[in-house]
Specification:
Layout lengths: L12 H4 L3 E9 L2 E10 L10 E7 L16 H5 L2 H6 L3 E5 L10 H17 L3 E11 L1 H12 L6 E5 L16 E6 L8 H12 L4 E6 L16 H6 L9
Parallel strand pairs: 3-4, 3-5, 5-6, 6-7, 7-8
Antiparallel strand pairs: 1-2, 2-4
Helix pairs in contact: 4-5
């Protein structure tokens, strides 16, 4: 997975400094699992106002413990002056340890705990506007998190991920944005096609973009300005589903 991400450039110090560094540790049957993460608050917090929380799951090439490689692509873009103003939100980027994958239940549940604790510790986060976005391994992680914790999210966006169509009914109430290149040689486009078909069968609100002639890096256009995906995402509200 994520062969194209193995040589990520160094993250600019100005970008890193916009994100507060932290970690979450939990004990499981096989020991203690520690997940580093970074979080960026809205630039100008207004008293009494609620803000969305954007959770980003990176691809396999950004795994590790340095707690900065996961800031590539979407977090980096959300830290630019234009997007920070246009998409005012909290942005959280956990980093998956090298020996794990986002789809593993231990990691999935720990990220869910991290999201819940972040909402509790930041009272200006709107729990009805938690948005989950991931690419490649992170796109697969979106499917796993939405399956195990569907009530957490107002919407998810999975880029070139791999999920289990048998779990579609669990996610049927969540608005979902899916993107995959039909020339992907890392994760075959058939995985997204099957997920979308299963979601449509259970009447889920799913938007699917299959990009002709595009390989694994199908997220690049959506992570730039203008971004129809981000505009769609910020219109979603969990409260409206109740």
């Amino acid at each position: 997975m994520d062969e194209t991400l193995n040589n990520l450039p160094h993250v600019d110090e100005k970008i890193k400094n916009k994100f507060v560094e932290d970690q979450i540790s939990r004990e499981f049957q096989n020991g203690i699992l520690t997940i580093p993460y970074r979080i960026m608050s809205p630039e100008n917090l207004s008293t009494g106002r609620k803000y969305p929380l954007v959770v980003f799951l990176h691809g396999a090439g950004s795994r590790g413990s340095d707690n900065y490689q996961q800031l590539q692509t979407l977090p980096k873009q959300l830290a630019t002056p234009l997007w920070r103003k246009k998409y005012e939100s909290y942005v959280m980027a956990p980093q998956c340890p090298s020996e794990f994958w986002w789809g593993m239940w231990q990691v999935t549940d720990q990220v869910a705990i991290l999201i819940q604790e972040t909402i509790q510790s930041h009272p200006q986060i709107d729990p009805d506007r938690v948005y989950l976005i991931g690419l490649s391994m992170g796109g697969s992680g979106c499917w796993s998190l939405a399956t195990r914790h569907p009530d957490l999210f107002a919407a998810i966006a999975s880029f070139c991920g791999q999920g289990n169509p048998e779990n579609a009914s669990t996610m049927s109430a969540i608005p979902i944005w899916v993107v995959h290149g039909d020339d992907d040689r890392v994760i075959n486009v058939s995985y997204s096609r099957e997920m979308v078909h299963a979601l449509q069968k259970v009447n889920a609100k799913v938007v699917y973009h299959e990009l002709p002639g595009i390989g694994h890096n199908c997220w690049e256009e959506s992570y730039q300005e203008p971004s129809p995906m981000m505009n769609w995402m910020f219109q979603q509200n969990r409260y409206k589903r109740r």
